[in-house]
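Hi C.,

You asked whether I'd gotten around to modeling the 251-residue construct. I have! Everything is below, sequence then structure, no commentary in between.
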Amino acid sequence: MWNLLIALASAVVVAVVVRLLGFPLWAGLVPGLIVFAGAYLALARRTANKVQQIIQAAQKELSSRPNNVREQKAMVEKAVRTLEQGLRYDKWQFLVASELHAQIAMIKYMVKDFDGAQAHFAKANPRNYMARAMQAALYFQKKDPAKMKESFEAAVKAGKKEGMVWAAYAWCLVQLKEKDEAQKVLARAVEANPTDEKLKNALTQLQNDKRLKMKPWEPMWWQLGLEAPSMEYLGGGSGPGGGRRVQFVRR
């Protein structure tokens, strides 16, 4: 990564200068480390700011409400192209590309471009819990429970404090007739989040043979596309200005 290499080179230059001034090599260690840390942080911040500008531009593209499917497709394609511009910074800073792939995957998933989403999920940052949850939801719809569980496990590991992810995992298991496993998942969730009353109530629902209700986690829950959102969330129906709004989900 270029930012790291440039910072290391700066540190080496400082150490060499100190040695040329007649000081022992170890005397350049401290100033070299200071220069390395300062240079790396400055370069990383500069790259992050450039990537953030690209993300904001893509968000602006997605902020409008298309009037029809054709306009929605054009809007999404333009936003994706904007995000792809940020991939050129992959050689400059760690995790830039994987986070952009996660954002692209989520956008494509939410407009039901599942094949496109899957290609980007494969390259997404494993620490982006929402991307992993959407990938799990995709495997659920493809009737691949093994990969669904694998993706959900990654999601709850990265987002162990995110109740919706745990609840979505349990909901999918219930649909697969694995109620006992769903209870185990929610028990783990409560253990990781002992003050989360919504998770406690969800666990109680299953223990009392009641339906697991996802309403406490709306509207984020709807972004997984496993249940239909309300008309209010849809923006008033299928007329002009209606339709599901694409949103970024940050980890």
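If it helps when you're writing up: The chain is about 65% helix and 0% strand.

Thanks,
B.
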